[in-house]
Fold this protein.
Amino acid sequence: MWHKVLAGLLASGLAFAAEAAELRGVVRDNDGGVRDAVIHATPLAGAPALDPIRAVIDQVEKLYTPFVSAFAVGTTVNFPNNDNIKHHLYSVSKAKRFERPLYTGQKAAPVLFDKAGEVTLGCNIHDWMIAHILVLNTPYAAITDGDGRAVIAGLPPGDYAVRVWHPGMKGKSKARKNPRKVTVSAAPSEVEFKIRLRPKIKWWRAKPTNADREYNSEAGG
């Protein structure tokens, strides 16, 4: 009897392993690993299911956190303001135009991202506050760390078109049209990208040294 139970457990474990694959990626430029790049994979066999999820982009110490986000179409995002001053969140990007006028705390209405594309966030009061979002037609994405590395876990085995994106990346259109084809199996697969970045001022703003002085909460800054 026990050998039958053990065989069943082993079969279940093998089945799970076959269903959960992993893609490990690295993104580099001429200076080394690139932080905040998005590696995303789209199955070639057909459109993947996009389960609606909720995400959070916070406002802390007069910065958006995280600086780069990536999620699937249909995601709803909350934008809490954990500073003791008012922020004025907005986006004029084609993929999502919206505005959340002066507010503090948790009272801003969440935003549904219902179209794929790039979205840049700003603040009408603190112009150094910038964040970037990539909205995708796939749930399989990960953002690189300080070494330029990322892992996409839980991929069904199969063939994928794998792309890289970064808010400051040159040649985004070319990268979008020319993905890497990667076959993902039970063993971890690997992919590497070499990219070039535009000048940092094009996609990032330095927080001023005096930004943490006392703000008048009624004036919003």
The two ends are 72 Å apart (CA to CA). Confidence is low (pLDDT under 50) at residues 1-18. The chain has two domains: 21-45+145-209, 49-137. The CA atoms of residues 63 and 129 lie 5 Å apart.
